[in-house]
């Protein structure tokens, strides 16, 4: 029986070492999980701000697109007027039209 005692003691020590190792691993996993949860909370906390920024961006984009469309329509109208004048080839018509075109593009 004396030979069995050191074997049991060794097994007990190995068991405690393995248990300590598992506890360390568990603590490391817990710490990593808490860090990921904190990151997740930080990222999800900003979702409201992101939605507000996106809404503001979409609103500004729609406004700029409306301005672009308005300017394109005005440009097309001016090109048509210029083409009419060129095709009519009349100097007096050119001078008349010059004063009729609205000055919306002035700075």
Task: Please state the CA-atom Rg, rounded to the nearest Å.
Answer: 40 Å
Mean pLDDT: 82
- Tally of separate domains: 2
How much strand? under 5%
Write down the overall geometry.
rod-shaped
Structure class: mainly alpha
What is the succession of H and E elements? HHH
Note the total helix count: 3
The count of strands amounts to: 0
Classify the oligomer: single chain
Distance between the termini: 106 Å
Main sheet attributes: strand count, strand direction, barrel closure: none
pLDDT < 50 runs, ≥5 residues: none
> Fraction of residues in helices?
over 70%
Q: If you had to describe this structure to a student in words, what would you say it looks like?
A:
The chain is mainly alpha-helical. The chain folds into 2 domains: 1-45; 55-102. The protein is built from 3 helices and no strands. It has helices at residues 4-45, 47-88, 91-100. The radius of gyration is 40 Å and the shape is rod-shaped. The mean pLDDT is 82.
């Amino acid at each position: 029986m004396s030979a069995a005692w050191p074997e049991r003691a060794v097994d007990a020590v190995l068991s405690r070492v393995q248990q300590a190792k598992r506890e360390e691993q568990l603590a490391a996993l817990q710490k990593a999980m808490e860090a990921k949860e904190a990151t997740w909370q930080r990222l999800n906390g900003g979702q409201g701000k992101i939605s507000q920024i996106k809404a503001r961006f979409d609103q500004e984009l729609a406004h700029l697109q409306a301005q672009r469309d308005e300017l394109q329509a005005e440009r097309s109208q001016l090109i048509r007027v210029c083409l009419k004048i060129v095709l009519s080839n009349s100097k007096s018509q050119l001078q008349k039209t010059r004063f009729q075109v609205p000055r919306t593009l002035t700075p």
